[in-house]
Amino acid sequence: MVVRMLPSGRSIAALAVLNFFLADARDGLGPFLDAFLATNGWSAVTLGAIATVGGLVGLLVTPLCGALVDGSTWKRALVGGPVILVTVAALVTLAFPQAAVVWIGQIGTAVVGAVIGPALAGLTLGLVGEAMFSRQIARNEFWNHTGNVASLLAVYVIVGLYGQPGIVGLMILTGIGALAAVTAIDPKHIDHQVARGLAHDKGAPGPSGFKVLLETRGLVLLGLIMMAFHFANAPMSRLIAQQFSIELGTPFRTTAIITGVAQLSMIAMAALTPFAIRRFGLGAVMLVALCALPLRGLLAGSFTGFWVVYPVQFLDGVGAGLLGIVTPVAAERLLSGTGRFNVGFAAVMMLQGVGASLSNVVAGWLTAVGGYGLSHQTGAGIALIAIAVFLVFRNQVIVPKPAEGNP
């Protein structure tokens, strides 16, 4: 039997700092890429093609990245390495915005960035174990969303003071912060058996085959529910920002408000979720998250005053914010003991990414046909499908922890 070292306060604090800096460091230029390239003469069609190809490539490699994390004992390197590559690719793109550089950089960013999600989940599980996983995932999300808000404020101030050189400095700073944090995590505190979903004292007979992913019906259902949810939810914030930016003529400030409200709501959800899971169960929390989306779509599609941004984006924090915590916890429970947690979680991430990617085309078409309201209300209808599937198959999707009984 292997005796597992409990993580020190330093490792847990470093994990919090890592999540704070990863809010900016994992995406490189992220949402600023389109604006930067557009000012350098790139067309909207080309920018859309880059985003689509990069996104699809990232989705295709995500399960492979999960398998890599399952089999690797270099969890810290699988977070730190992509941070370095993503930051370098973004800096090169800023310096040389030529076609070959941009295409290679963005596809490369999508590939290496796909490693970070499964690697971070595995690193967290290996540090704290199954019993504390849901609480630590909530803390991760709290610090990640806090980092998003801080990054948003920093960009707003730094761009105004220093322009593009300020963005370069901010990217370097966040990259260094993320690397320093991941280095501060003591590798001796990472149990790699637990990190892949095996108990540390049950190494034999070893991990299950990959077919366990298809045979675990609850995991497939979880992936389909997440795909439907993100298909309905993903385009809403972007379309709301477009709508009010055009009406008000202040794209940056409008987008900042819309994004900021959602991120602040997600911070609140991350703080409340551990208590809610303990008090009401994982299934009840997932149901609340799913139910927030049809209400969000109904509000966004029925009212046109700017005031609606606040409840609509608050509900984004409730829905997407809660699911960002609940999804990896549900996947971990479903795959506990199989040794395939990271690849299974990556497969769920791929399915929700497919939903989010396909939704942009459909939402754009619906907006062209019937306006923003039609797109939002259609999203609300699709969200009801996700709720119905969850209610019918809830007992297969949600596996209770042995110590807590039925949720």
By CATH, the topology of the largest domain is Growth Hormone, Chain: A
Which value, in Å, is the CA radius of gyration? 21 Å
Which structural class fits the helix and strand makeup?
Answer: mainly alpha
Q: What series of H and E elements makes up the topology?
A: HHHHHHHHHHHHH
Q: What's the average pLDDT?
A: 84
Question: What would a concise description of this structure say?
Answer:
The protein has helices spanning 9-25, 32-38, 44-71, 75-95, 99-162, 164-184, 192-195, 212-215, 217-248, 251-280, 282-302, 309-334, 341-397.
Written overview of the protein:
The protein is an all-alpha fold and 407 residues long. The protein has 2 domains: 1-200, MFS general substrate transporter like domains (Growth Hormone, Chain: A), CATH 1.20.1250; 211-401, MFS general substrate transporter like domains (Growth Hormone, Chain: A). The protein has 13 helices and no strands. It has helices spanning 9-25, 32-38, 44-71, 75-95, 99-162, 164-184, 192-195, 212-215, 217-248, 251-280, 282-302, 309-334, 341-397. α4 packs antiparallel against α6 (164-184). The two termini are 32 Å apart.
